[in-house]
Design a protein that fits this description.
With 657 residues, the chain is of the alpha/beta class. The chain is globular and about 75 Å long.
Length: 657
């Protein structure tokens, strides 16, 4: 096991060395500046408290003020996030803007809502209860009487993207390639929690929570939401578009590498297999079949190729152009060959087009920008359409839906699951081919009369939704799913618990073994520190004596300690796939001394339907990856730990055994 982790460490080190730029210089605040920050944050805290107490106060507008308070609190907590001499004045000006907002709203006037153009808003994340900022670009034509399209913009990698800096730059940024032609759309510029691990994990959640907040506050046509991103934002857009192909009318994706670990040997199975979810967009390329997609990059991209074989020293590489080239090539292998000119190739049989900006580096040429604007208008005008032919692949039930098809169960996680479904005759007939699927659900089935699944014909009565299960190799019409099974949102690995609302539970009792207790608290403290710094929020934390049954219904509950120190762990331990006494820990048929070994695992909660319970673990990725991008799960579904050493780890099967 130690040798395996040495290989992982070497690979991870190579990746971090390639991806992460040098840390920017730091401007240290003097005592006068520090006092000014403290005073301004204190004033914002007072204003927010008074606003919350106002009878009939608009919660959304109060949150818009609280976004500035959050920026100030982060500024006070992390004074090392000023990088250039002018940053101090800019940060102070952002706090002053927030104070002015608070005073205006206290007087009954939300002045920032009266001006078109750029607005900074905030939303409260259900993930961790934090307030996260975002920017909106409001066209002059918007009057709130009719729904408009929404463009969702994912920014590139930025080593200086503290909240105050994001808010300052968003309001002052000049016209650029990220500003497409004005077709009456609103554009959402997401913060994405600094770098948001390349719009994965909490960064991915930020995308959908930000969209939902804009939809609540503005008149948005839900069928005309377009995803856009460039560079690291392109990396995120590849991930989100291909994993959520029916969530957007179209996707414009510029550049955007992804890591090469999924192509490298030496990882243990519990690390290698989950890479199919997060790091290998080639595995998901077929999902462009039902999503209009425009991939693009510069001809003179100078970055390092993302996937082996690597370029030799001094040899020209294709840099972040690699992503769209590889997706296009994979679509060819899926049966959709490229046609057209070399700098504008279309995957025949799909609505995916791939542009190359000639004589251009890590940017977009004016020629390609014009073509991208035409692409955005065409598919923004059309909006999402329910296709008669759905092709969808998935390697996990976390990402399980395309239009009217949902993958409920796989026969085996981390192997390719596939559905090829055609409906005809006015929606009365469905012919489908599947691979590695054990249960699926079809929607829009009101006119359905016959469903042919893998050559097996089933007569059905039309209804809005129908489910099918495979038993003994044969399909049957199914009712409500029963029994423990890996399914959407309950499939692991451990890190998956942190993509839905979660609660950390601190033990207060007497531990069985002090060494284990102290080590678990170190893990909890370390996760809190990493999350607050790099995912821009303090996780919810409660002492075990303050936790109620209602918390298990609301949250994925993360229990630290042992069954002696944590009263809730004592309640659930007999319902989890392990045996833990004061003397011995047994898991997976192997036993270990409980004096210095303890479990880290994820499992469907015995106390909360549709929720997880997690033992002794936050996100398992290395902190350097959470800070930048491509955070790789390191422990699978379960592990036995001894201090910082992983003694064993693995993945549960489809019924959580």
């Amino acid at each position: 096991m130690r040798n395996g982790f040495l290989i992982v460490a070497i690979c991870a080190a190579a990746l971090v060395g390639w991806q992460a730029p040098p840390a920017p210089a730091i401007i240290v605040l003097n005592s006068e500046q520090s006092a000014a920050v403290t005073a301004k944050v204190g004033e914002l805290e007072s204003l927010v408290t008074r606003l919350r107490a106002l009878k009939g106060a608009d919660a959304d507008l109060v949150t818009d003020v609280e976004a500035y308070l959050k920026a100030g609190q982060q500024m006070r907590e992390f004074p090392d996030e000023f990088f250039e001499a002018p940053d101090v004045a800019k940060g102070m000006a952002v706090l002053d803007q927030g104070i002015a907002r608070g005073k205006s709203l206290l007087g009954g006037d939300a002045t920032w809502m009266k001006v078109k153009g750029r607005r900074v808003h905030g939303y409260r994340s259900s993930l961790d209860g934090s307030v996260q900022p975002y920017g909106l670009r409001i066209p002059e034509s918007y009057d709130g009487t009719k729904p408009v399209r929404l463009y969702v913009w994912l920014h590139g990698r930025d080593g200086k993207n503290a909240e105050w800096n994001f808010m300052d730059r968003f309001q002052k940024v000049s016209a650029s390639a990220s500003n497409p032609a004005d077709e009456g759309q609103i554009q959402l510029d997401l913060y994405g929690r600094w770098n948001g691990t390349a719009w994965h994990w909490a960064g991915e959640v930020d995308v959908f929570e930000g969209i939902a907040d804009v939809q609540r506050r503005y008149k948005i046509d839900p069928k005309r939401i377009v995803l856009r991103g460039f560079s690291m934002g392109g990396c995120g857009a590849w991930h989100i578009a291909l994993h959520h192909p029916s969530s957007f009318a179209a996707a414009e994706i510029g550049a955007g590498t992804w890591p090469y670990r999924s192509q490298m040997p030496g990882f243990p199975e519990y690390q290698q297999l989950p890479l199919h979810i997060y790091e290998n967009i080639l595995d998901w390329s077929l999902n462009a079949f039902n999503l209009p997609l425009a991939g693009h990059g510069g001809e003179l991209e100078a970055g390092v190729s993302s996937i082996p074989p690597y370029a030799k020293k001094g040899e020209k590489t294709r840099g972040q152009l690699e992503s769209s080239m590889r997706v296009r090539e994979q679509l060819g292998r899926e049966g959709y060959p490229s046609v057209g000119a070399p700098d504008e190739l279309r995957a025949d049989g799909t609505e995916a087009t791939f542009f190359v900006s000639l004589a251009t580096g890590h940017s977009t040429s004016a020629v390609v920008r014009t073509k991208l604007d035409a692409f955005l208008k065409k598919y923004g005008d059309r909006g999402v359409v329910s296709p008669e032919h759905v092709r969808f692949v998935s390697w996990t039930t976390r990402y399980n839906r395309s239009h009217w098809v949902s993958v409920d169960w796989l026969e085996k996680h981390y192997e390719r699951g596939e559905v090829d479904a055609v409906r005809s005759e006015g929606g009365s007939k469905y012919v489908m081919k599947t691979k590695n699927l054990a249960r699926l659900t079809l929607r829009e089935m009101g006119q359905a009369k016959e469903v042919n699944l893998d050559g097996q014909s089933l007569k059905v009565a039309g209804r809005s939704e129908l489910s099918f299960e495979k038993q003994g190799g044969a399909w049957r019409i199914a009712g409500k799913a029963v029994g423990l099974h890996k399914q959407h949102g309950l499939q692991g690995p451990i890190d998956d618990a942190f993509m839905d609302p979660f609660l950390l539970v601190r033990p207060t009792g007497t531990p069985w073994n002090v060494a284990v207790h102290e080590e678990s608290l170190k893990r909890m403290k370390a996760f809190e520190a990493v999350y607050s710094k790099h995912l821009r929020a303090h996780p919810r934390v409660k002492d075990d004596r303050d936790v109620s049954a209602a918390d298990f219904a609301k949250y994925n509950v993360v229990l630290f300690g042992d069954p002696g120190s944590n009263r809730w762990m004592a309640r659930v331990i007999g319902k989890l796939p392990l045996t833990w006494t004061k003397e011995t820990l047994t898991m997976g048929g192997k036993s270990f001394s409980a004096k210095d070994h303890f479990p880290a695992l994820i499992y469907p909660s015995p106390l909360g339907q549709g929720r997880y319970v997690v033992l002794n673990s936050g996100m398992t990725s290395d902190v350097s990856e959470i800070q930048w991008e491509y955070a790789m799960p390191m422990l699978g579904d379960y592990a036995v730990l001894k201090g910082r050493e992983t003694v064993m780890a693995g993945l549960y099967n489809e019924v959580w055994k």
